[in-house]
From TrEMBL:
Residues 1-27 are annotated as: Disordered. NCBIfam families: PRK10917.2-2 (NF008168). The keyword Aminoacyl-tRNA synthetase does not apply. Keywords: ATP-binding, DNA damage, DNA repair, DNA-binding, Helicase, Hydrolase, Nucleotide-binding. It comes from Synergistes jonesii. This is Probable DNA 3'-5' helicase RecG.
Amino acid sequence: MANRTENKAGASGKARQDKIDSPISELKGIGPRRRALFEKLGVRSVRDLLFLLPRRYEDRRGKKNISALVPGFPAVVRASVRCAETKMLSGGRRITTCLLSDGTGELRAAWFNRRRLEKTLADGAALLLYGTPLLHGDVFEMTEPEFTICRGRDEQEESSFCGIIPIYPAVEGITQKTLRSAAKRAVEEYLPFMPEELPQSVARKNGLLSAADALREMHFPQSPESWKEARRRLAYEELFKLHLLLAERRRERECCRSFPLVKGARFDAFVSSLPFSLTSSQKKALDEIINDGASGAPISRLLQGDVGSGKTLVAAAFAACVCDGGAQCALMAPTETLVEQLHAQALKYLAPAGVVCAMLKSKMPARVRRETLAGALDGSIDVVTGTQALLSDELHFKNLGAVIIDEQQRFGVRQRACLLKDGGRPHLLMMSATPIPRTMAQTLCGDMDISVIDEKPAGRVPPATRVIDVAALPKLLRFIAEEIAHGGRVYWICPRVEEDEGSTLPAAGQRFEWLKKKLPPIKISLIHGRMGAEQKDAAIASFRDGKSQLLVGTTVLEVGVDVPEATVIVIESPERYGLSQLHQLRGRVGRGARRGVCVLIAGSGGETERLRAFAATDDGFAIARADLEQRGEGELAGLAQHGLANFKIADLRKDFSLAEEARKDAEEYLKNK
Ligand code: ADP
Ligand code: MG
């Protein structure tokens, strides 16, 4: 983007742009010491400083006469010093008090530990003060008011003290006053050199301010309304740039050639070997995927669907079509446990259709590994499942036609990018159970198409969710014992491994011991984040095989673990999770014939309301929206951090219609260029 502006503006434009990138030490008042302090915040150039935006503002418009002050309400006052004195307090503190008057009344101001302040506050000096007045007897008093000394009736002084005052993010060792005056200098002396990076047509269409005007307004707003306009302008630019980049990527992808996707013999065999038929939502998603491939360009698609909606099945159908087109697939999951599970699913669905499936694990017999690698290379193996580490390092395919990523929400965006670095252009299909609202998904994963499975296989009854309190624990234990006696299995989720000092949180290890005592002869396994991969796998395997019937653990269980016999999940401290995360956990049970039950052990506090609302719905998308409103981006934040969407100003929670606008504009702009 910067390049484009440069080209248009030519050499003089370049010089202008360089000016905005001058080191901040060129600003008056910023020497080596302050420069170093700013650098800690990543602020090096004047441009950086201009983008160090206020965290909030103080509305100091309109001065008040002392007689018109209202106790407790902050105000600006202009008054003259009557007298000032400093006293020592116990403990070596000093207090400077000052009596001021403006002809309508008297005001006392007090500051602590300010050296020689009483000298500054010479009798008769005129001051502008900002603070919160409180009544002491019948005299107003302000403690630690901000102030400036007025020399004569200086308009400028007054305007920089009154107005709407920016409060900047704290920079250690630099006062707000210094930050403000540095910003003021940058705005006055450098803003005219701010290059305009938005295409004119786009700015005009959306009625946007210039970058320079918007930044001035962000630092020194004239009114809340004009500030909003400025913020909109800057947020739009961030979104537009991102979408332009994404659209360019997409365009580049569309120029590549890739393997055809064919509903051929293996696909037909796959479909006829299924004991059920695909839901119409699954069919629709699959058709979108296959039609997408008809252009010959590699597809890049995110398949979203609630837990248990049958995404993995769609992925298997897609893999069959890739194989029918004469190519191979790499199938990825985020952990070894999930890899094993995914491989088992691949075997179950694809092997009957004549697709040769193999798996790579970190620990496996050397001979099997060699054979698997050789099979991928000579094309005798069609599908290889593994974690990302295994797939990216040593594995080479004869004809890699597609990369399929399950539980994509666990991979960062950047990791996905390096997956494709080998130069090949396979199709990319990713599955995600985090139901991201569409606009947000388009911004976070915007160079991808999106399909949604919004229906679950028929006959599936959503788990019942109960909110109980600790007093009901004995009853819960009886229920669990009964459930297990009837062939069910139970997950018990604790938030942390060990008890933190002073924390009242339950710990998985302690809970494990406690449950062992309370529930003999039930076999219990333990899993938590500090265990090695092998131990974890062993714990899950033992639970899956029914050697243990109760699995106590932390949220490592969260993603994708599929044990159809599991019917109950107990979640301690549910208030510690986002609703989407709870929904994921809840999706672990009721996958088989028996109905699932999710038990939330609510702590004290006002959380119960939120949990009850959660218990009342099974709509993952509605839950994700509620989560966004209540907790911010939550799990999405992880995605955003890794990704391109590293916004300073735009906020996907609020700016979704702006993001949508920017996306359309970027596509339009690229088309007409
Ligand atoms: P997801 O990956 O979305 O969590 P899966 O593909 O693992 O879901 O499917 C969940 C369960 O539902 C699996 O046991 C699967 O066999 C079953 N299933 C998938 N699609 C259907 C369908 N169309 N009809 C009946 N059962 C289905
Ligand atoms: Mg799945």
